[in-house]
Every structure is written in structure tokens, then in C-alpha cells.
Write a structure and sequence with these properties.
By secondary structure, this protein is α/β, with parallel strands linked by helices. The protein has twelve helices and 13 strands. Helices cover 39% and strands 16% of the residues. Bound molecules: nicotinamide-adenine-dinucleotide.
């Protein structure tokens, strides 16, 4: 199977590429390295079944050429991360709308099956006990850049659905809920790598707001096989599926757990949202997935708990810091890789 992964040098895309190579695929990655990095795919560059193409999904000619040479496409390339979206709203909108349209066009032209990565952000401020795929979207003002990621991904889903309806494009959509794990960067506002990095450096863990907002974190190692199974299931076509973690945790409890598991001497510092983002910034208090549709389709069950996730991220960051010698890591952080029952994942993370 020849598989194209857009955004394959990013966090999830690079793990997906590893998984697909292990399944026997030939993998081509299209990535402009805006938030991804060659380091994420360096271990595959000598593999003759792996091809990296540095370029943009906004370049329709490149997209057409690469899609025509593939049997199927995983579309993960996007401008991701609240910080990035808020600071670069226009580029982000163009990437997330026009870039996706170009992938949809090419997949339609060459009749290729497509998996589109969408997001739980599209549910916006809906704080229902459990969000299912039919749940309403409650977004803030269109003039607040913070919501433009959710708006763009919603348009992507509508586009994909229309291509399926009108042109018969074989496309399935997955809505990912706070996927975390090794290789995720904290640079664009991702909470787990940020807090773990702060704990490893012995800095205060900065928690926004009152810290009682909750999330359900899922592990990339649980999500990636599910992406592959969804695209391989014909009854998934034309539909969207939530893929999220099973356990809800507040960010303040997450920070406390990170301090405990890394053996850090750090404290927790509450930071008002307006100190981190522009005044008027809005966040959702909670976001809980109902995974039952994906469970019925492919038997999806998120198995990795928050402690294992924290340890995996800490272990990877610790190894990276040791290699790069770029941050001062507390010796006590070594405890992270010795938490009972944990298999260190650092070797798989770089
Ligand atoms: P990421 O930033 O690590 O990956 C995105 C990749 O896309 C990067 O490698 C980046 O360089 C690349 N990219 C950006 N613009 C591009 C362009 N114009 N052309 C080519 N490549 C481009 O983020 P991620 O967390 O791995 O996200 C992957 C996908 O999953 C995205 O579509 C994102 O919206 C979705 N998603 C992620 C999460 C999460 O919690 N990580 C949650 C919901 C949805």
C-alpha cells in the first residue's frame, strides 16, 4: 500500500508514519516543517519505503502529484495550537481551509481514499457530560481568532462531507481530543509537554485560569492504530468519529500529578488567561468525548492512563534534553522513567 501522510513530520503524523511503515506500507510525507521537524522522521529517512517531500498543502500541483502516486491519504497537515492560531490567524485559516480543499480536490480527481483529521475543538463551548458526533457546536465570536481553528476545521468537515455526497469521494473524518505523547512540542501552547518541561527544569508549572478546567487526554499510541483502522473500514466513509481519552482530569490535578511523577521540586503558579493570551480570551471548561461510535466501528478503547502518558512524555523530554544538553534537568526527574510498570519510550521517540 502506498500511503501519503500530509503533516507527517509533525507529532501525530510522524507516529502514524512509523506505524504504517511497520504495517508494510510505503509512506510519503508532505510537510512544510512549519511546526513539524525533520528530527521527528530522521530515523526513517534511510528507509527505501519512506519518502519525505518538503512542501506545502497550499501548493496544489505538489499535492496533485503526490496524491496521484498514492493509494490513500491521511490528511493531518494543519496549523495547530492555540498560540499559533492566535498569533498567525490568516496563515492558519489559509492552511486549514485552502490546504484541505486542495487535498480534497486531488483525492477526488484520482479517486483516492482519504482520512481527514479534525478536532474536538469544533464542539467549542459545548460542555455536555459527553460529546457525541451529533452534538451541537457552540463557538464564540467569529472575530476572536481563538475560534478560527474550530471554524476552519468545521468547514473542512463540511467540505469533506459535500465532496463525499456530490463526487463520491471516499472520505472518513476523525475528531481528535487532546492527543498527547512523545514528540509533541509545547511551543504552540500544548499543555502536557509545557507542564512536563517546566517540571523537569524545576520551574513553576504555569496553569491558566483557576486550573479547574478539565480535559480527557489520549495517548498517541492508542490513536494512531485507530486512524489506520478507520480508513480501512468502508462503513466509516462519509462519517465522523470521536477519538478521545477515557478519563477527565482538571489541569491543576494534571500539574500536581506531573510534579509527583517526575519527582520535581516545582510549585504550581496560576496565571490569568489574559497574561498568556489577549484580553477576552475564551477557553472551554470541559470537553469529554463519547467514543461509543468509534468503539462500535473498530473496537476503539483508549487504554493508556494519564500516569503512563506523563511518564512517556517526561521520559522522551528527558532523553531529548540529555542529547541536546539544552535544558537543565533535575536529577530527580530520572524517577520518571522508573515509575512502576513503565516501559521507557524514549528510544521510540526520537
Ligand atoms: P503538528 O503541528 O505536530 O502537526 C501538523 C503538521 O502539519 C506539522 O508537521 C506541520 O509542519 C505541518 N504543516 C502545517 N502547515 C502545513 C502546510 N501548509 N503544508 C504542509 N504541512 C504543513 O500537530 P499534531 O498535533 O500532530 O496535529 C496533526 C493533526 O491532528 C492536525 O490536523 C490537527 O488539527 C489534528 N488534531 C490534533 C490534536 C492534538 O491534540 N494533537 C487534537 C485535535 C486534532
Amino acid at each position: 500500500m502506498r500511503t501519503l501522510v500530509t503533516g507527517g513530520a509533525g507529532f501525530i503524523g510522524s507516529h502514524l508514519s512509523d506505524y504504517l511503515l511497520a504495517q508494510g506500507d510505503q509512506v510519503t510525507v508532505l510537510d512544510d516543517l512549519s511546526t513539524g521537524s525533520v528530527q521527528n522522521i530522521a530515523h526513517n529517512l534511510m528507509d527505501p519505503r519512506f519518502h519525505f517531500h518538503e512542501g506545502s498543502i497550499l501548493d496544489a500541483e505538489t499535492v496533485h502529484t503526490l496524491v496521484s502516486g498514492a493509494d490513500r491519504v491521511f490528511h493531518l497537515a494543519a496549523a495547530v495550537g492555540v498560540k499559533l492560531i492566535v498569533e498567525h490567524p490568516l496563515t492558519s485559516l489559509r492552511t486549514n481551509i485552502h490546504g484541505t480543499e486542495s487535498v480534497l480536490d486531488a483525492c477526488t480527481a484520482y479517486k483516492r481514499t482519504l482520512l481527514l483529521a479534525s478536532t474536538s475543538e469544533i464542539y467549542g463551548k459545548n460542555e455536555a457530560d459527553s460529546l457525541n458526533e451529533e452534538s451541537d457546536r457552540i463557538l464564540g465570536s467569529a472575530l476572536k481568532s481563538r475560534w478560527s481553528y474550530a471554524a476552519a476545521k468545521g468547514i473542512d468537515e463540511s467540505f469533506a462531507h459535500a465532496y463525499w455526497q456530490e463526487f463520491g469521494l471516499e472520505v472518513a473524518i476523525v475528531r481528535l481530543f487532546n492527543t498527547v505523547g512523545p514528540r509533541q512540542t509545547g511551543r504552540y501552547g500544548m499543555v502536557v509537554p509545557n507542564l512536563v518541561g517546566q517540571a523537569l527544569r524545576g520551574e513553576p508549572l504555569t496553569v491558566f485560569g483557576d486550573g479547574h478546567q478539565t480535559r480527557c487526554f489520549s495517548y498517541v499510541g492508542d490513536i494512531v492504530p485507530a486512524l489506520s483502522r478507520v480508513i480501512e473500514t468502508p462503513s466509516a466513509l462519509g462519517q465522523a468519529f470521536n477519538l478521545g481519552g477515557a478519563h477527565e482530569i482538571s489541569i491543576i490535578d494534571l500539574a500536581a500529578r506531573i510534579i509527583d511523577l517526575t519527582g520535581s521540586t516545582s510549585t504550581i503558579k496560576l496565571v490569568p488567561y489574559e497574561n498568556a493570551y489577549a484580553a477576552g480570551y475564551e477557553d472551554m471548561r470541559r470537553r469529554v468525548p463519547d467514543n461509543s461510535k468509534a468503539n462500535a466501528l473498530i473496537g476503539f478503547v483508549p487504554r493508556t492512563g494519564i500516569d503512563e502518558i506523563i511518564v512517556a512524555v517526561a521520559d522522551a523530554l528527558f532523553s531529548k534534553a540529555s542529547l541536546d544538553n539544552d535544558i537543565m534537568v533535575q536529577a530527580s526527574a530520572l524517577r520518571a522513567s522508573t515509575v512502576a510498570g513503565h516501559e521507557p519510550v524514549a528510544s521510540a521517540a526520537h
